[in-house]
Amino acid sequence: MKIVIADDHALFRGSLRSLVESRGLEVVGEAATGQQAIELARQLQPDVVLMDLAMPEMSGLEATRLLAAELPAVKVVVLTASDDDAKLFEAVKAGAQGYLLKNLESDDFFSLLERVEHGEPALSPSIARKLLQEFSRPARSSAAVPNPDELTEREREVLELLVDGVTSNRKLARRLGVSENTVKFHIRHILDKLHLNSRAQAVGYAVRHGLIEPQRPE
Q1: 216 pLDDT more than 60
Q2: CATH code of the domain made up of 148-208
Q3: Which of 1, 68, 69, 152 would you label with 40, given CA atoms 20 to 30 Å apart?
Q4: Structural domain boundaries in the chain
Q5: What is the DSSP secondary structure assignment for residue 73, as one 8-state letter?
Q6: pLDDT of residue 51
Q7: Angle, CA of 86, 205 and 69, to the nearest 5°
């Protein structure tokens, strides 16, 4: 199994690398940010990315969404100190193949990691129970309400460019200094969060609700 470790704490990365390699697994790369994790996954095509959630530049959650969309063969297993239920649910919805806490015993950690190799989710019994309880709840009958406050700073930047008439993926990527796949990822989440179906609807919504002021010619 080829592994990339993504965590912003160098000491933890080094300790985890030693532990993983002592079990005969191969660590092919280390990343300190979500963006680095994506770049390494593209270059190295690992079997698994062990992903921390709290990292600078791009969070592990955002990186997980991108990897799940762009490189579905690369399995993301969240490895975090946070047992916050909301983060757990978001990580699974984002495409994480597992959610492990850093206080796991090493034998339990490797046992759960082995499941991923066989296409199974890496979830401890307590985490699995939480997920089962959450996703077995009846769906809300009322229609979902758009929540612009959920938009990230980068998503608002993308929306602003759309309002200003920069609509092609290529031009958006050039203006933002990112790849076209990253642009598609941001737009998809803008539409999801605002419950819209097209870029045109997003532009109309943004202007109508005062999220973005269109630039006026001088």
Answers
A1: no
A2: 1.10.10.10
A3: 152
A4: 2-135, 148-208
A5: T
A6: 96
A7: 45
Question: Mind listing the pLDDT tens digit for each residue in 117-170?
Answer: 888 888 888 788 877 776 665 544 444 556 777 888 888 899 889 888 887 888
Beta-strand ranges (E) seen in the chain are 2-6, 26-31, 48-51, 75-80, 98-101, 122-123
| Alpha-helix runs per DSSP H in 60-118 | 60-70, 85-94, 106-117
The 10 Å Cβ neighbour count of residue 52 is 26
As given in the structure block, the two tokens for residue 92 are: 């699974």
pLDDT of residue 143: 47
Taking the alpha carbons at both ends of the chain, their separation in whole angstroms is 59
Cα separations in angstroms, 42 against 67, 68, 129, 139, 145: 9, 12, 33, 37, 36
What is the pLDDT averaged over residues 52-80?
Answer: 89
Average pLDDT, the chain: 85
Report the distance separating Cα 46 and Cα 25, nearest Å. 12
CATH fold label, 2-135: Rossmann fold (3.40.50)
